[in-house]
């Protein structure tokens, strides 16, 4: 497939947030987060960087500073090739955390990634997010930069939840372990705005993405990933004296028997226990072959993370129950370079590779096994159906049917003529279907139309006062925040006035402009430098309250107000607010939460494939906005316009409408935390302070807490360091 000419070489940004990502000595299988996805994004970045139509590739991942892992992961930048590099972005707490613990820090990652990209001379042409967390970050960057978003899920939350439920795991345990609801919502949000979704198989489109409300098959493209054909090849020399071969011999009484090889991290959905049961229940299979389980790396099972520890304990109990000592090998350590050797050893033994996972989004190890001439037996759920269909080198199985699993493995091992045919087919067809060169050619053909359609963001040029240098900002909501206590409001306004040469003052409110100005006059609040109204759908600048027309053009993306009104017209529990509260970009309702939940409204709009923001505030108001509009996104647009850093911006809010202003790199404050149930979920977020004081006094309390410089003239106590 020939790539049509791209007008200029493309600048591509890949995002893969979690795991341990570096360009050498990949720690694959170390834990649940450092596996096939890490290998894929590294190899994709390198392969794209080799193409003449690519100017450069930047892979953004999380910076990790932790004595328990290599200092490599703390390096800000790592070169992969002449045109490809890894850039590590600060993301909340510095130590290594599993991906389920990162959700509260993703806005921080997005803000820092945005700051990095703004230093690069030109904007990327494409942002490509990998997995739900990077999809969320990519969506935020896409909104702010106006750059097309491409998404690859790798594995999807809805499918994972269904498979775990089917295997007997309780719904409450799934939620506690995997934070699955938050992940699924992030996937829905990403699918709503992604302009292309790249999958590995057609089955993935139909049976995994098909479970989502934003299922849009017209935007999905199947591009099978490549494999490293330099490292993976059939046996050429005798490798029985290799390090990993000697490791296996420690476990096996008859190491020359055919090998049933499985490689995966210790995770319940990899289903190793069922494989052990299938092997242990079959006398014929135990006689015919050894079982080799490569389940990541470990020093001490007791020190592994809880999911991995529980899985390893279950694995060892199953081995003991069937008394498989001398027949099963489960080495403690292996290096990435040992995997090709293991596959060749299994091929040389006339063995078989097995992937018994409950679900397998793609199955890169199956391709590597095929390239090594090793026949495969794999789960029927996910990518293996396409791989085996293309390579014609093995069988699909129901991963929950242990009897059938044993019979299929025995059949593959015992039929010599069939084994040779599978081995030959695998080697030949991998080269045909799964080379990196082919992958990159197809990839560039997919993104080229998106690059050509892209229009740069137009921004207005606000009036400036060059004699003032204002590198700090205070943004606050209006109702039950500024308004409520005249005495503390007066004190706060005195501080703002006395520091107006250094501090930008902004108000963000759900009210329309006229209503907001009336409230300001009534409470004698000075007109701010920035007035964000309509829940973030309108921005006005002093002096003269100049409207930002470029913001209106920006948020019009994917907006269909008429369709939203049609969908919600007869929903019980929703009542349209008066016409004075409606606008072209804000559809406002009163909501009776005893009749309909905000989540139900959101799901209804998602099922109709309407990409919107659903904002709930004060327990009774519901606003439907364009997907690029919110108070937080408007605030960040203003930061770009007026050139003030988010890390010097104190933001105070009281309702759910304020949530995305308060997280990320801003100094967030939830005012009067005792009564703000809509914002309790922010308790674990970086830089979010919950004040005890109410109204404007809560903002003053936050200034003291953060040690904001503008309070030097007004605060007598010594401020604490910033948290």
Question: How would you characterize this protein structure?
Answer:
The strands form 4 sheets. An 8-stranded mixed beta sheet has the order 3-4-2-1-5-6-7-8, with helices on both faces. The N terminus and C terminus are likely disordered. The protein contains 26 helices and 26 strands. It has 723 residues and is of the alpha/beta class. Helices cover 38% and strands 16% of the residues.
Quaternary organisation of the protein chains: single chain
**Biggest sheet features:** 8 strands, mixed
Strand percentage lies at: 15-25%
Structural class: alpha/beta
Tally of DSSP helical segments: 26
Give the overall pLDDT as a whole number: 90
Strand arrangement within the widest β-sheet reads 3-4-2-1-5-6-7-8
Give me the secondary-structure topology:
Elements: E1 10-15, H1 36-49, E2 54-62, E3 77-79, E4 84-89, H2 106-117, E5 126-130, H3 131-145, E6 149-152, H4 157-166, H5 171-178, H6 180-193, E7 196-199, H7 202-207, E8 220-222, H8 243-249, E9 259-263, H9 272-281, H10 283-288, E10 290-294, H11 306-321, E11 328-329, H12 338-348, E12 352-355, H13 364-371, E13 376-379, H14 384-391, E14 394-397, H15 402-414, H16 416-433, H17 436-453, E15 472-476, H18 478-482, H19 486-498, E16 503-508, H20 513-522, E17 530-533, E18 538-541, E19 546-547, H21 549-555, H22 561-568, E20 574-576, E21 587-591, H23 598-607, E22 612-617, E23 621-626, H24 631-642, E24 649-653, H25 659-662, E25 667-670, E26 688-690, H26 695-706
Parallel strand pairs: 1-2, 1-5, 2-4, 5-6, 6-7, 7-8, 9-10, 9-12, 10-11, 12-13, 13-14, 15-16, 15-24, 16-17, 24-25, 25-26
Antiparallel strand pairs: 3-4, 17-18, 18-19, 20-21, 21-23, 22-23
């Amino acid at each position: 497939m020939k790539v049509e000419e791209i007008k200029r070489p493309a600048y591509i940004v890949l995002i893969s947030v979690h795991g341990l990502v570096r360009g050498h000595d990949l720690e694959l299988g170390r834990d649940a987060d450092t596996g096939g996805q890490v290998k894929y994004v590294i190899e994709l970045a390198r392969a794209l960087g080799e193409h003449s139509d690519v100017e450069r590739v930047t892979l953004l991942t999380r910076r990790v500073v932790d004595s328990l892992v290599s200092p490599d992961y703390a390096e800000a930048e790592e070169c992969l090739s002449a045109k490809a590099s890894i850039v590590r972005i600060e993301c909340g707490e510095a130590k290594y955390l599993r991906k389920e613990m990162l959700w509260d820090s993703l806005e921080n990652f997005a803000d820092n990634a945005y700051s990095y990209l703004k230093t690069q001379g030109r904007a990327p042409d494409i942002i490509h997010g990998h997995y739900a967390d990077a999809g969320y970050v990519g969506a935020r960057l896409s909104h702010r930069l106006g750059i097309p978003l491409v998404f690859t899920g790798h594995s999807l939350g809805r499918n994972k939840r269904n498979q775990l439920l089917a295997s007997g795991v309780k719904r409450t345990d799934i939620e506690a372990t995997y934070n699955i609801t938050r992940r699924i919502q992030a996937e829905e949000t990403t699918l709503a705005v992604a302009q292309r979704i790249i999958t590995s198989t057609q089955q993935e489109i139909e049976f995994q993405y098909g479970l989502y409300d934003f299922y849009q098959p017209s935007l999905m493209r199947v591009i099978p990933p490549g494999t490293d054909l330099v490292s993976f090849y059939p046996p050429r020399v005798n490798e029985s004296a290799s390090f990993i071969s000697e490791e296996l011999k420690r476990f096996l009484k008859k190491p020359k028997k055919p090998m049933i090889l499985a490689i995966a991290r210790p995770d319940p959905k990899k289903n190793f226990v069922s494989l052990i049961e299938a092997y242990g229940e079959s006398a014929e299979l135990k006689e015919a072959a050894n079982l080799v389980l490569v389940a990541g790396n470990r020093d001490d099972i007791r020190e592994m993370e809880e999911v991995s520890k529980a899985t390893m304990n279950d694995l060892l109990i199953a081995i003991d129950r069937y008394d498989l000592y001398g027949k099963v090998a489960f080495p403690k350590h292996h290096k990435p370079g040992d995997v090709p050797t293991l596959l060749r050893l299994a091929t040389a033994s006339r063995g078989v590779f097995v992937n018994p996972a409950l679900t397998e989004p793609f199955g890169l190890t199956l391709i590597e096994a095929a390239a090594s001439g090793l026949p495969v037996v794999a789960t029927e759920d996910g990518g293996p159906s396409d791989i085996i269909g293309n390579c014609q080198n093995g069988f699909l199985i129901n991963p929950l049917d242990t009897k059938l699993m044993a019979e299929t493995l025995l059949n593959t091992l015992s039929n010599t003529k069939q084994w040779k045919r599978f081995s030959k087919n695998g080697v030949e067809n991998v080269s045909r279907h799964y080379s990196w060169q082919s992958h990159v050619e197809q990839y560039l053909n997919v993104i080229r139309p998106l690059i050509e359609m892209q229009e740069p963001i137009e921004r207005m040029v606000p009036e400036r006062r060059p004699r003032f240098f204002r590198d700090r900002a205070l943004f606050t909501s209006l109702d039950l925040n500024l308004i409520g206590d005249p005495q503390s409001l007066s004190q706060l306004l005195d501080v703002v006035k006395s520091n107006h040469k250094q501090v930008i003052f902004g108000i963000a409110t759900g009210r329309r402009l006229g209503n907001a100005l009336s409230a300001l006059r009534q409470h004698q609040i000075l007109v701010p430098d920035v007035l964000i109204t309509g829940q973030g759908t309108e921005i006005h600048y002093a002096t003269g309250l100049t409207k930002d027309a470029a913001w209106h053009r920006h948020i019009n993306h994917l907006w269909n107000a008429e369709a939203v009104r049609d969908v919600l017209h007869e929903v019980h529990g929703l009542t349209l607010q008066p016409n004075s509260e409606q606008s072209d970009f804000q559809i406002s309702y009163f909501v009776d939460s005893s009749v309909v939940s905000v989540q139900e409204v959101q799901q209804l709009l998602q099922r109709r494939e309407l990409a919107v923001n659903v904002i709930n505030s004060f327990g009774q108001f519901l606003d439907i906005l364009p997907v690029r509009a919110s108070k937080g996104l408007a605030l960040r647009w203003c930061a770009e316009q007026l050139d003030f850093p988010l890390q010097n911006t104190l933001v105070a809010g009281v309702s759910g409408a304020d949530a995305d202003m308060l997280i990320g790199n801003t100094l967030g404050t939830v005012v009067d935390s005792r009564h703000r149930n809509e914002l309790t979920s922010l308790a674990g977020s970086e830089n979010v302070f919950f004040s005890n004081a109410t109204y404007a006094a809560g903002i003053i309390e936050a200034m003291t807490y953060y040690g904001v410089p503008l309070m030097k003239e007004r605060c007598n106590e010594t401020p604490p360091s910033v948290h």
